[in-house]
UniProtKB/TrEMBL annotation:
Recorded superkingdom: Eukaryota
Pfam families: Glyco_hydro_17, X8
Gene: LOC103499229
The name this protein goes by in its record: glucan endo-1,3-beta-D-glucosidase
Organism listed in the record: Cucumis melo (Muskmelon)
Keyword Signal: yes
Amino acid sequence: MPIPFLSLLLFPFFLSLSSAEISSLVGINYGQLGNNLPSPSHSVNLIKSLNAQIVKIYDANPQILNALKNTDLRVSVMVPNELIINISSNQNLADQWVRTNILPFYPQIKIRYLLVGNEIISSTANQTWFSLVPAMRRIKHSLKTYGIHKVKVGTSSAMDVLQSSFPPSNGTFREDIADRVMRPMLQFLNRTKSFYFLDVYPYFPWSSDSVNIKLDYALFESKNITYSDPVSGLVYTNLFDQMVDSVIFAMKRLGFPDIRVFIAETGWPNGGDYDQIGANIHNAAVYNRNIVKRMTSKPPVGTPARPGRVLPTIIFSLYNENEKGGSGTERHFGLLYPSGKAVYEMDLSGSTAETKFKPLPEAETNEPYKGRIWCVVGKGVNMSEVVGALSYACSQGNKTCEPIRKGGPCYEPDSLKTHASFAFSSYWAQFRKIGGTCYFNGLATQTIKDPSYGKCKFPSVTLQG
Ligand SMILES: *[C@@H]1O[C@H](CO)[C@@H](O)[C@H](O)[C@H]1NC(C)=O
Ligand SMILES: *[C@@H]1O[C@H](CO)[C@@H](O)[C@H](O)[C@H]1NC(C)=O
Ligand SMILES: *[C@@H]1O[C@H](CO)[C@@H](O)[C@H](O)[C@H]1NC(C)=O
Ligand SMILES: *[C@@H]1O[C@H](CO)[C@@H](O)[C@H](O)[C@H]1NC(C)=O
Ligand SMILES: *[C@@H]1O[C@H](CO)[C@@H](O)[C@H](O)[C@H]1NC(C)=O
Ligand SMILES: *[C@@H]1O[C@H](CO)[C@@H](O)[C@H](O)[C@H]1NC(C)=O
Ligand SMILES: *[C@@H]1O[C@H](CO)[C@@H](O)[C@H](O)[C@H]1NC(C)=O
């Protein structure tokens, strides 16, 4: 008797839950690659004030996990890349990792996702690739041993796992990983009902082809641009959906049409170098607010390949992180400055109307910079490290350092800083078009102020277009 009664009562309730009440969870990536970031407990308060529902960390830092006690946040932790090979071949090590890093906090803390490594298959091939899925299996097994069933195990990957992503229906995993890594991984994700954790940044394809891809299409702002996939017939209104669906089609091609996707990272840089376009506060706020609006809409929007499906999404990132390598944008994905001050207002619950936010600054870098750019020694860097960078730069290219040799026009004043700045500019001017960067391990920075003097002319970079 009670059973039909209950199911009668519950069934319509669940129906309405799934169609109208459910939306995708939205969270924040809490990266810690900065030497000036607030404490874990202060950070957790900031995360709460952003109304995040999930927080993802890149390790299992016990101070952060302690700070997350007594919060309602769902948590994603990570097995560091370095441990994957050993864990893959040793169940005791997997058990030990879970015992040390998860058990003390579970179930008080809502640990729900456990990623084994970060973008492993984006770096150069090594043994770690082939240890990845075995390590995921061992970690899952350990969780089961300890009676932990609510934690989904996965790994994050970037778009470069695909060899083809256009049109979306042509999405295909790279040949070097399709059979040896992706197929067993998808089998694992399917068997354990886990997610495919994907890092998706429309910023990068847009910024490398901003002539053909419209900015509005990348920012979810376009009202009239659509792209119809000629094979699937699906109609796209933004670049994000195209990218996500290309991965969905790649999974389908390997025989896994149903694995849920989880957006482990997405975002837009609020700043960058002079040679990077579209990285500004205006665009970052527009992108992140639009994606939050989309993900929190009820019922869920999904993507053209999976309309109406939830797509949990974790924005990258909480802070601008000053110790991240690479070009300037890498250090400018934060919703917050390291001081804790907002770069722009955000409400990850999606319940603040756009009109309630203060006006945004104009987007000033949406076109390529038109003047000349030089690459010089950054402020306050360690000058003993500059020595090595100088000799590296001089060893590359053609006559890179001729003018700073004794008797050359740039020899005087004989200062390490001036010589290194010349070498950096000279190196960058020759190598930028083939991917060389003005970075030198953080020792170099771009400038639009010509460092030339007298007869000493510094080589410069000019962007085309
Ligand atoms: C992996 O195991 C080897 C052999 O026991 C050990 O030498 C190495 O330090 C371990 N690596 C890590 C990152 O723990
Ligand atoms: C192998 O790749 C992983 C990431 O994919 C990286 O963390 C690790 O340092 C690499 N190991 C070697 C020996 O190159
Ligand atoms: C589809 O992908 C393949 C590689 O997987 C590529 O060679 C081909 O050019 C792509 N098709 C289109 C129309 O881009
Ligand atoms: C879309 O609208 C924008 C702004 O109204 C306009 O500049 C653009 O030409 C339109 N594009 C197309 C493809 O209709
Ligand atoms: C796993 O694969 C089977 C066969 O393709 C499919 O029926 C099922 O829906 C899949 N489950 C998940 C969670 O992807
Ligand atoms: C500067 O770099 C050198 C060489 O790497 C290192 O030995 C030294 O400790 C550094 N100095 C400071 C102040 O960080
Ligand atoms: C150096 O000069 C050679 C011969 O002129 C040329 O092929 C090469 O591309 C140059 N290298 C760079 C970095 O410009």
